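User: Some background: our group keeps a shared notebook of sequences we're curious about, and every so often someone picks one and asks for a predicted structure to add to the entry. Today it's my turn. The entry only has the sequence so far, pasted here. Could you supply the structure so I can complete it?
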Amino acid sequence: MRNTPVDYQLAKNIIEGSGISKIGTASIRELVKVVNLIEEKSGLKFIRMEMGVPGLEPAEIAIKAEIEALRNGVASKYPMIEGVQVLKNEISRFIKLFLNVNVNPEGCIPTVGSVMGSMAAFLIGNRTDRNKEGTLFLDPGFPVHKQQSLFLGHPYRSFDIFDYRGDKLKRKLESYLESGKVSTILYSNPNNPSWICLTENELEIIGQLAEKYDVIVIEDLAYFAMDFRVDMSVPGKAPFQPTVAKFTDKYIILISSSKCFSYAGQRVGMMVVSDKVFHRSFPDLKRYFTSDKFGHSLIFGALYALSAGVCHSAQYGLAAILKAVNDGRYNFVNTVREYGRMARMMKDLFLKYGFHIVYDKDLDIPVADGFYFTVAYPGFNGADLIEELLFYGVSAISLDITGSKRTEGIRACVSQVSEDQMPVLEERLKRFNKDHAVKENNFK
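Assistant: Of course. Here's the predicted structure to add to the notebook entry:
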């Protein structure tokens, strides 16, 4: 029996008993469940890098606002589906101050996390034209988005954008759009999992092609202003968070409060629909909804059916954060810079013990240190590396499930790892390297 930091046979039995055919390609939540069980049964605390949950405390101003709202009786009242007006107003201000884009508050809608926002966007955006089919994903990306497409029965297309940066992007995008089958384009920026950041030139290409082929761009800004190479923390002052909204009015922006505001537990995100898309009529929407207006169908068709509104008090909590940020009283970017510092420390340890960075360049400069990074180890594909690391008390996810073509890699999230765990991480990576550096093909 092998001698590993985690009892080998115990972990193996749990993995085999999970019912998951290949643990290295399990979904994020499936892997979380397995790791929780191994921790419980073994008594060994893992280095948890599999799930992108915030590791910082939420702003006190939000908590106080929620408490006040609850004391004012909101818990007994249904919230309006389109959101409370004070939050809608602050979202609109936030978009102007940090993206330098104007959007009417009516198109600024709270959602139950940005995952619900993407679901609603697919439900409406992919039904605007009976001759189109579904979404083009600029991979790698958040695996749940494709899961949503499959759940909805929407065909999708995808490609790994890393090989098509800069001017190459236009030719590649157009090769998909000219089919006439694409309704929506979705990407994240900064990117989950690679942490590459699209440039203004690339966003302009996406915007121009969205105009040419009449496609709605769904821009996932879950990691808003978290490219720490650039300071985007001052409201109303450049540089602003890069956005496709500068180059097209065919867009929906998804913003999570989970990462940049450390407000994950309240499940309140933001969906921002351009004024033009919100008011546009799509006759084919009448196949499913009572109105052909995009905004009406979004609110009273999709969002009503999905949740009938967002937690009332959480909306007031988010509104309080946004007001403080918009007024310049709370610098949310400075708060989350901690993730960049942790990423640098963790990367250094992985590199020290035989790993290498998979997505290492952002065009011609090194990828920023942020919420995620990607690594690989010689002789392993990503799925097998995930499984092998479990026996060493380290968990992450395979790039396989993100749509990446770099199947040798894994994604590591920094948010659940504390600085006092660095010696433990180093010891486990050192042990892993010692066990595999010479006989690296033994466990493929």
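Suggested note for the entry: The CA atoms of residues 1 and 8 lie 7 Å apart. The chain has two domains: 8-56+332-436, 60-326.
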